[in-house]
Design goal:
There is one protein chain. This protein has one domain. Helices cover 73% and strands 0% of the residues. It contains three helices and no strands. The N and C termini lie far apart (48 Å).
């Protein structure tokens, strides 16, 4: 199965850019979420932290 996929992908011009795009997208989302969480107020974090415990 993997040989079939690999063979098909090798025949596409410019396919090597897709792994780079996906890696950059992942790290961008990760860094943005990290910045958002680090900038949140402590009060808001405590409120979100207790949400699963509320009825």
């Amino acid at each position: 199965m993997l040989k079939y996929i690999k063979h098909n992908l090798e025949s596409i011009d410019g396919v090597s850019i897709y792994p780079i795009i996906s890696l950059v997208t992942f790290f961008t989302v990760f860094v943005v979420m990290l910045i958002i969480v680090l900038k949140m107020k402590k009060k808001d974090l405590k409120e979100i932290e207790n949400l699963p415990l509320e009825d």
